[in-house]
Amino acid sequence: MHRVRPPLTRLLALGALVSLWAGIAVPAGADQIADKKAEAQRIASQLDAQSNRLADLAEQFNEARLQSEKVSAQAAAAQAEVARLQAQVDDNRQAVRGQAVAAYVRGGISPSANMDTTDLDPSRMEQYVSSIIGQRQDALDALRAAQAALAERQSALDAAKARARGAVARVNSSKLAAASAQASQRATLSKVQGELAGLVAAEAQRRAAEQARKAQAALAARQARDSTAARSAPRPAGSSAKPVKGAPAEPSGPPPGPPASGASAAVAKAKEQIGKPYEWGAAGPNSFDCSGLTMYAWRAGGRSLPHSSRAQWSATTRVSVSAVQPGDILFYGSPIHHVGIYVGGGQMVEAPETGEYVRYASIYRSDLVGAGRVY
Length: 375
Prior knowledge:
Blueprint: H1 8-24, H2 27-105, H3 122-191, H4 194-231, H5 263-272, H6 290-300, H7 309-315, E1 317-319, E2 329-332, E3 338-344, E4 347-350, E5 359-362, E6 368-373
Antiparallel strand pairs: 1-6, 2-3, 2-6, 3-4, 4-5
Helix pairs in contact: 1-2, 1-4, 2-3, 2-4, 5-6
């Protein structure tokens, strides 16, 4: 059984009671509440900044892990190639050794030679033996060169593996430091009186609503502008209207086709995960990070996605935010560090951040970058 977060309405109700109490308190009490509100806003700002930092670190961690896996696969393939060519070296070396024995025992004439040895003069015999020796030397030189090249390649791959491991270690260290800082902030919140926690929750809700309003307004403005431009005289090829600041980029060209046939299964699987905890680098079945959730959901839809929000951006086809359909993936941040899967009605299912749980959320945020469709 997964823990469920206390209803936000309870926290908001507490915040409302505090506000009511502040309204009837004496001036000194009002000053105290004003101070608490200011402190709540300050802590909410700190938590927002820390959450963004953690999300970016989580994405760096996922990318470093993908790179490490890629390099490890390359190293394994190179190792197999080394083994194959080493076997070829051994076979050729054995063949050259056999040639040397034949040359010594038979005077340089192989049993398969179609010539009468009784008529072979010494100069021709010497020429033939030199040819055998030259062929053997060429073969050995080629094999030595191949071995040297393979050794150099293996060394480079080993160095790349070490760098990849180092990158993962560094990001993991940063992750632990950032998570520790956020845990400290949350501990501070838990120590203060309940009214401050309610005020922080109310402030977070207010900010989310404000972000959604601004994002929707920016998108509506862009759509209106594009509609007006479409009705105006034809513009030169390649020209475009100036984008509205903060509006997500809308792809040009014909609209993409419908999502893959597994979209409904992906959405259903995502909804099943609601209430499960967020965990760095996790991709189910008991916990998730943001890209781990979308990857896990779409696996149920019969499609494979990489475990990285930035890699998922590259793996999907751009679609207008105004035309998103259930199963599409929403991308956030610059650089991209968060994703969610659209489920309809302006809502997505997301794995938000450390200490939170998979949940429904509005797709409209100030850092909305765009949407991607899985085919």
